[in-house]
Amino acid sequence: MKIPEIFTPNRNLSGRLTLWVMLTTLVVFGITTYFTYKMVEGAVLESSEENAMSRMEIANQHINGVLKVVETAVENTVPEVEWLLNQPDQLYRVTKEMLERNPTIIGSAIAFEPNYYPSKGEHFSPYAYRGIDSIYTKQLGTDEYEYHYMDWYQIPKLLNKSYWSEPYYDQGGGEQMMTTYSRPLYDKDGKLYAIMTADVSLTWLTDLMKKNDVDFNMRLMIDNAEDTVKMDSILQAEDFYSTHAYSFIIGRGSTYITHPDHSRILNDTYFTYSLETSDTLDDQVGYEMLAGKSGMNTYTRDGTGYTLIYKPIERTGWSMATVIPSDILNERSKLIGAIIITFMILGMLILFFVCRSTMKRLTKPLHRFAKSADAIANGELDTPLPVIKTKDEMMHLRTSFESMQRSLIQQIDEIKNINEQKGRIEGELKVAREIQMAMLPKTFPPYPERTEMDIYGQLTPAKEVGGDLYDFFLRDEKLYFCIGDVSGKGVPASLLMAVTRSLFRNIAAHDSSPSQIVSQINDAMADTNETMMFVTLFVGVLDLPTGRLRYCNAGHCAPLILNSDVEVLPIIANLPSGISAKFRFESQETIITPGTTIFLYTDGLTEAENSQKELFNEERMITVAKECCTPNATEIKPQQLIKKMTDAVHAFVCEAEQSDDLTMMAISYKKEQKDYIFQRSITLPNNIETIPELNAFVDEICEAAGLDMSMTMSLNLALEEAVVNVMDYAYPEGMKGDVTIEAMANDEKLKFIISDSGKPFDPTAKGKVDTTLPAEDRPIGGLGIHLVREIMDSVNYEYIGGKNVLTLRKSLPHDKNNIETI
Amino acid sequence: MIFNIQVENDSVFATVSGRLDTPAAVKAQQEILPIMENVDKEITLDCKDLEYISSSGLRLFLTIRKEASAKGGKVIIKNINDEIKKVFMMTGFFNLFEIRND
Questions:
Q1: What is the mean pLDDT of residues A164-177?
Q2: Is A15 exposed, middle or buried (0-12, 13-18, 19+ CB in 10 A)?
């Protein structure tokens, strides 16, 4: 079920703002309402009081007006009475005329002192009164009606002043409430002789008060008392006095003169009721009223609060009061309060809707921004932003969004480019690494047919491309090998490594002197070495037939010689290659005896570091090497040696990361396993005329080896070319010398060793003949040694013991296995 | 005699026979003089009976070939056996000469 947003204000801004505005307004409204209500309550009370007061004043004036008319009428008649005092019978006419002149007066008497006119008896008192249709006269006093003792006669006589009597019911006439004005009359001597009266009906007074009450209740919005008839009809209700305002008048003796309840008039006094309650406040009010004071007071009767406002009617000494139940005033205040609250609620509702719609309208762009931001977050960078027309914070936000979008697009593009470049560079580095690794010999054993030696090499690269190298190849019965370490790491080192390896291959292809090879590599590198990088290099040339090892070191670590014991090959340090052109590298040489292993390595081995920053070092390396040289194990397998060394290094380094390339190469030099089955030799003088003898010798050998015509002819050609070469070049012109040719064969190989004592001359050092050149460009010479190389498997030259030794080898076809033993 | 040479008006025909080894090639340098004097002609060397050839022998062929192309002549080698052909192949001579078989 969806919860309306107003109940979940935390989830949206407009709801929250609206809620806060509403709450604040509610509090302000509440406080305002409370105080307003209080003020209204006071004002209602005050205005009700004022209203009651003014009503009572009006009633008071009305009553005064009526009474004053009566008083004036009596006063105006007094001179006429004095004038006619000698004609007592005329006085009937005077009273009658006064009634005729004043309709409010319903009766008037001139009551003389007893026996004032002796002829008229004791009770002379002319009296005029209104009958049903006319005015009648009569004498008031009789033996039954001794007026001299009545209040209206006695009180003015005693007080010597005019007097309004307390209201009373007219017993003779129409049973109406009346009051009588009594005026004492005095003669010239100041002696009282009569009291003149005028009777006035007070029926109108009750009506006046009733009308007033109806009016007042209407004002107080008590609508079920809209006229006097209705008022009378609801008068019987029990709660009348506690739900309606009413007035009453009490006389000087606190008797009710008017009261909504007619039965109380002239029957009960104010105190009859006030005394019924324990609340003495109302009694106090009664006394104050009787004392002719005016004021306002509140009291409680039967749990209902009342406000009583009172005021005297001074002419008669009566007191008038209005009673307003507090509930009416409260009702009034409540009504006004309810009106205020209604308006407040209406206002709040309007405020709520205005707030909400405004907030929604204002925050609507935020939702759209959120949508846009979500879309952007999902990768839709070109998502359109909401259109903002206002020039407020939203516009500002939009501008910020726009620039964010732009810079996002730009930066993502940049990152993409960078990543592409990075990926490409990484890919290229990987390829570079592969190319670098492919340059190194990887097929082991590399020369399976060679029983006199075994080689194994291994390069364990560090993380990045590095600059270690090893290489070897066989040429003319000589093993050319090198191991090196380029300074630095990374692509530059790997490039230099590739250069070094190529130089080695190219130079060693035609030069068999290690110092020459190193010198040429050095010169080539130093010439163009602007980056000041260098290579430590060890180059060795091992002559396989003789075991002679010539080597040249260029700043590389000394190889180990493993035999029955481990020795370090003595080396001259020289300089690393690439530092100084024309540096004279010194060659060294030694004889390697069969059963010896040469172990070459780079400093990646001795400087392998474990996590405690300790180096593997030379001692550990030699210890491992020695373990391979147990006296019984006459033969050390290069691969096993390197594996053992690798395991030792790994065990030492343990978890630490390999920081440098680790390169090792081992070369075992062994005795040739297969002895030659036969061996013959011939010595010829250095005269080409003896070539046919050589041919005959070769034919003989070939026949013994069971070779066919074609092979025989090829071998003849090779031997002839080789021997002619020696004859032509080894000895200076005219000098006599010998050339010895030894032939050795087993069932696999044929070997010829051509030796002479002439000057050192290396026929293999000649450049190769380019057989693709056109005739015009072909040199005449050089074909001989070319043919020898073409025919034989290997041609090897070595100057050893003062002799040029040229060794030619040829593997025999396997099916030819019929060697003649001599 | 290794080279047996017949010189005609606009051509030279020679048979090459036997072993053309180093000593023989030294001697043959004299024998090929008639060819060298007529290198502007079409020279045919019939090697039907040539048994063996060393680099010195090859040098003779190359000398003739060079002279001929310098003087506007032409050298055709005919009927070389398989062994000689192998030597020609090894030295690239097979491509230097026009080789024909009858």
A1: 76
A2: buried
Q: pLDDT digit string (tens) for A251-263?
A: 888 888 888 888 8
Q: How far is CA B82 from the centre of its chain?
A: 16
pLDDT given at position A480 = 92
What's the pLDDT tens digit per position in A15-32? 788 888 888 988 988 898
Domain B3-100 -> CATH class: alpha beta
CATH of the domain at A612: 3.60.40.10
On the question of pLDDT at A815 being above 60, the answer is: no
What ipTM was assigned to the predicted interfaces of this complex? Answer: 0.91
Chain B residue numbers with beta carbons less than 8 Å from the beta carbon of A783 are: 55, 58-59, 91
The mean pLDDT of A674-686, rounded to a whole number, is 81
- Are A696 and A682 spatial neighbours (Cβ–Cβ below 8 Å)? no
Q: A46 φ, ψ to 5°?
A: -65, -45
- Both A631 and A707 in one domain: the answer is no
Q: Is the pLDDT of residue A228 over 70?
A: no
Instruction: Please spell the DSSP secondary structure of A521-561, one letter per residue.
Output: HHHHHHHT-SS---EEEEEEEEETTTTEEEEEEEBPPPPEE
The answer to whether A721 contacts B66, with C-beta atoms less than 8 Å apart, is: no
**Distance between CA A243 and CA A241 in Å, rounded?**
6
Per-residue confidence band for A820, with pLDDT thresholds at 50, 70 and 90: very low
Task: Decide if A774 and B56 are in contact by the 8 Å CB cutoff.
Answer: no
A380-391 pLDDT tens trace? 888 888 888 888
Q: Name chain B contacts of A709, Cβ cutoff 8 Å.
A: 83
| Number of neighbouring beta carbons within 10 Å of residue A304 | 14
Domain count for chain A, please give it.
Answer: 3
Residue A49's pLDDT is what? 84
User: Residue A81's closest CA among A70, A100, A103, A96?
Assistant: A96
A607 and A719: one domain? no
Q: Show which residues on chain A lie within 8 Å of chain B, measured between beta carbons.
A: 688-689, 691-692, 695, 709-710, 713-714, 716-717, 720-721, 724, 769-776, 778, 780-781, 783-784, 786-787, 790-791
Domain boundaries, chain B: 3-100
Shared domain check, A608 and A542: yes
Q: Which of A176, A201, A226 is the last residue of a domain?
A: A201
Residue A711: closest CA among chain B residues belongs to which residue? B83
Between residues A7 and A675, which one has the greater pLDDT? A675
Residue A9 pLDDT greater than 60, yes or no: no
Chain A residues with beta carbon closer than 8 angstroms to that of B66: 775-776, 778
Taking a C-beta distance cutoff of 8 angstroms, is the pair A665, A472 a contact? yes
Where in the sequence is the domain holding A692, given as residue range(s)? 678-811
Q: What is the pLDDT of residues A271-289, one digit of tens each?
A: 887 777 666 667 888 888 8
Name the residue in chain B with its Cα closest to that of A785. Answer: B55
Inter-chain contact B63–A780, Cβ cutoff 8 Å?
yes
Q: How far apart (Å, rounded) are the C-alpha atoms in residues A565 and A329?
A: 129
**Is the CB of residue A536 less than 8 Å from the CB of residue A600?**
no
CA distances from A780 to A52, A725, B56, B59 (A): 157, 14, 9, 6
Instruction: Please check whether residue A98 lies inside any domain of the structure.
Output: yes
Q: Which residues on B lie below 8 Å from A781 (Cβ)?
A: 59
